[in-house]
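Summary of Year 1 activities. Much of the first year was spent building the evaluation harness for sequence design. The harness presents a backbone, in tokenized form, and records the residue chosen at every position. We chose the following record to illustrate the format because it has been used consistently in internal testing since the harness was completed.
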């Protein structure tokens, strides 16, 4: 490892780590034992540990035990007294984390994913500029499941027929969420896309784009960064006092600096009123003053997603199986919250 090389070359007498030891306190022991794939690597997101700048304590996206060591730390995860057969529907972060914790407790777990790979929305998040490390979250979880012999079945959507065939004791629905878009009527002449579509199909984005931030998180600002790197002329409009308001402060500052260098324009405290052909009309939420952005090729709207929980509701209605819902399927949220809730559920099963 790099640290060992520095010590061996006598370039330092001691190596200290900060954020990496928040993410995985056992990093030195795992490295010493050669268990490099078992190390939870810091993804440099600052979403949990960055809270220390606002004196809210330290937590971690990747390690739910950080800041909660007494309840969730090393030695607190106990084996189950009643081994259960658990079926997890969905191999996004919520499903993978729930499966990991349940398997560590001794349950027989299987995971079913409708798509060709695990990772959920982290597969999109890792494509945003300066966010490639986010893929480490699903990599670590996938490796842990593999080591414990937990099968993950791909291209395998879960329905009642499959569940009845497998007869699990417990079903966990981690089926994610569905992005939504406003109804702009037939008069919209620009391509209307949600952030996921932009990442999955960048060829649909034209030369001049507006990104509307109704969330205040990475969905809008990350996509704005992504398409500006591609060469698009980008404007960002938000009803909030500043764009990306819920992004950690240092990340938000660097992100806005990158966007500004590429010529992106930001309009705050404003909302979309109407779209007329390729012209979007906005108004200031405080004084009602209108302004227009013209000759648009693409309109990207980042607004609240809708939980994909039809399977959960069908299972609850049938009453045949003990059923739980986790992650975006329960309520769309940040990866910080979702991994913590998945850890809690895995300990509860």
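For this record, the design step produced the sequence shown next.
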């Amino acid at each position: 490892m790099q640290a060992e090389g520095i010590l061996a070359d006598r370039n330092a007498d001691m190596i200290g780590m900060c954020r990496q030891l928040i993410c995985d306190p056992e990093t030195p022991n795992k490295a010493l034992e050669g268990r490099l794939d078992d190390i939870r690597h810091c993804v440099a997101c600052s979403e949990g540990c960055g809270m220390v700048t606002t004196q809210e304590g330290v937590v971690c996206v990747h390690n739910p035990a950080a800041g909660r060591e007494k309840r969730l730390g090393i030695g607190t995860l106990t084996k189950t007294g009643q081994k259960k057969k658990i079926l997890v529907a969905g191999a996004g972060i919520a499903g993978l984390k729930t499966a990991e914790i349940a398997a560590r407790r001794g349950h027989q777990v299987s995971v079913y994913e409708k798509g060709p790979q695990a990772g959920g929305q982290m597969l999109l998040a890792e494509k945003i500029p300066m966010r490639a490390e986010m893929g480490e979250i699903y990599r670590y979880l996938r490796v842990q499941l593999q080591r414990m012999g937990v099968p993950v079945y791909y291209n395998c959507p879960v329905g009642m027929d499959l569940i009845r065939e497998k007869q699990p004791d417990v079903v966990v629905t981690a089926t994610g969420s569905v992005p939504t878009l406003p109804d702009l009527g037939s008069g919209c002449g620009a391509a209307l896309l949600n952030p996921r579509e932009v990442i999955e199909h960048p060829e649909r984005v034209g030369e001049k784009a507006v990104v509307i931030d109704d969330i205040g998180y990475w969905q809008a600002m990350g996509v704005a960064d992504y398409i500006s790197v591609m060469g698009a002329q980008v404007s960002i409009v938000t009803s909030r006092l500043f764009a990306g308001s819920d992004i950690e402060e240092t990340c938000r500052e660097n992100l806005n600096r990158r966007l500004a260098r590429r010529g992106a324009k930001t309009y705050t405290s404003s909302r979309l009123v109407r779209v007329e052909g390729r012209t979007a009309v906005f108004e200031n939420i405080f004084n009602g003053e209108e302004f227009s952005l013209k000759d648009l090729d693409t309109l990207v709207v980042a607004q609240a997603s809708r939980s994909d929980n039809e399977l959960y509701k069908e299972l609850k209605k049938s009453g045949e199986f003990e059923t739980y819902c986790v992650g975006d399927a329960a309520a769309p949220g940040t990866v910080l919250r979702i991994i913590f809730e998945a850890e809690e559920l895995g300990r509860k099963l």
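The chain has three domains: 1-76, 79-178+306-348, 191-302. Quantitative recovery figures across the full test set are reported in Table 2.
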